[in-house]
Amino acid sequence: MDSVRRSNTPLHSERLLYLILLENLRLWTPVAHMTEDDVESLHDIALQLCAHSQRFLMYLFLIHISPNPVSDNKDDVLLRMSSTRARLGLMQRRLSSKRDILRAISANAFPLLGARGHTYLRDTTDHLNDLLRTVALARDSLNQLQSNYLAKISLDLAETDKENNRSMKIFSVIATVGLPVNAISGIGIPNK
After folding, report:
1. What percent of the chain has a predicted confidence (pLDDT) above 70?
2. Domains and CATH numbers, the chain
3. How far apart are CA 28 and CA 95, in angstroms?
């Protein structure tokens, strides 16, 4: 809006409407890009946690200890995914309602707008559609990330269960061999 004040071009109502609508959309652009960056950082964090989890499981496999399958980092990533998904949903709803308003105005519902005004509205609608595409792509990427991440957690849990089952088999064999020996020795040696 400062550029309008500085310019010497005459300001007509159609251009003023265009600048107001465009400024409104420009307020959403940093939020959309920030959310897109959040999704990318969640991808990086999830990949790091998965790589760390693999190394950790290999280490525990070598020393025969069962890990705790759920850590604070995984809970934090899922919480961040959830809050980012909520932010994307809110942006989708707000921008969709703005698109519906622009469609109603563009559909000659307002005959006071001339050809130039409709050109401005189409340009604003293009900007809005770009924002909606950015939000939709980020949302799809986040959905794919969450399903992949949860699948990885399920695989980690299955691996942990497999290790626990192996340990239980060893303990069962020891108990099976040791119980009869313990019972026989208990019968054979009287208490004093």
Report:
1. 74
2. 15-160 (1.20.58)
3. 9
